[in-house]
Design goal:
CATH superfamily: Endonuclease/exonuclease/phosphatase
Strand order of the largest sheet: 3-4-2-1-14-13
Order of helices and strands: EHEHEEEEEHEHHEHEHEEHEE
CATH architecture: 4-Layer Sandwich
Radius of gyration: 17 Å
Largest sheet: 6 strands, mixed
Distance between the termini: 8 Å
Number of helices: 8
Helix content: 10-25%
Strand content: 25-35%
CATH class: Alpha Beta
Length: about 260
């Protein structure tokens, strides 16, 4: 089974690229972020024509997440628990039947948090990460295969960006951000890419500005974090960098992993 995450940066603007990628990469489950579409406006017909079931948690103009899957989920949960006042569409969880039990896959779009001195944005990011940790603790207690996939807006280590000095004051790389991510890892979650590849640098995002793609000035902020039960089934992981060279690309590329689950 191939599971992927991709910040599409606007599904309507990128629908041709999305369909091309679904046909060529053929993930069994694809987690999308920043769909920038309300649920009823999502271009599901084009995706369903390729054999995918579509579940969305959308929002007009920004945010929004989706799960595309070749197998129909048994259960869908929308929104990260822990704050009933949070109206931002950043989290969706699907529960799928696989041989031997269930597989839980979440698509998440963690807040950016910039500028860090904003009285709302950075505290919201850190509070969201605390809620994510509490959610992960609960799911890990189930001792089931569980995958938290998405755009974390976190640069975990200095080698995950082209120049740490450039990012030193950014919300994606501040010590408090990285410490919150490390606490998440310390629960027993495995970074699929780093578990299978020691190569540095590896990036999943290149800004549209200043020739970042051409200069390979990237960062790695898109992650698949695995419970021990999912990590035991991990076979390989890849960053599909070539997608960034397509016409009208997203500034992110898909990150994929293969597992020996069977539906």
């Amino acid at each position: 089974m191939k599971i992927a995450t991709w910040n599409i940066n606007g599904v309507k603007a990128r629908i041709a690229n999305l369909c091309q990628w679904l046909e060529s990469s053929a993930p069994d489950i694809a987690c999308l972020q920043e769909i920038k579409s309300v649920d009823e406006g999502f271009p599901r017909a084009e995706i369903e024509a390729l054999g995918y079931h579509v579940e969305t948690h959308g929002q007009k103009g920004f945010n929004g997440v989706a799960l595309l899957s070749k197998i129909r989920p048994d259960e869908i949960n929308r929104g990260l628990p822990g704050d009933d006042l949070d109206e931002q569409a950043r989290f969706i969880e699907g529960v799928f039947s696989v041989q031997g039990g269930v597989l839980r896959v979440c698509s998440l779009y963690l807040p950016n948090g910039n500028p860090p001195d904003d009285p709302v944005k950075y505290p919201y990011k850190l509070a969201w990460m605390e809620r994510l940790q509490r959610f992960a603790e609960g799911r890990l207690a189930l001792e089931e295969p569980f995958i938290l996939a998405g755009d974390y807006n976190v640069i975990p280590q200095p080698h995950d960006c082209h120049d740490p000095a450039v990012w030193a004051g950014d919300a994606l790389f501040l010590p408090a951000t990285r410490q919150a991510f490390q606490r998440l890892e310390s629960l027993g979650l495995t970074d699929a890419v780093r578990a299978t590849c020691d190569t540095v640098p590896l990036y999943s995002f290149w800004d549209y500005q200043a020739g970042a793609w051409q200069k390979n000035n990237g960062i790695r902020i898109d992650h698949l974090m695995l419970s021990p039960e999912a990590a035991d089934r991990l076979q390989s992981a890849q960053i599909e960098k070539h997608v960034r060279s397509w016409e009208k690309p997203s500034d992110h590329v898909p990150v994929t992993a293969h597992f020996d689950f069977a539906a």
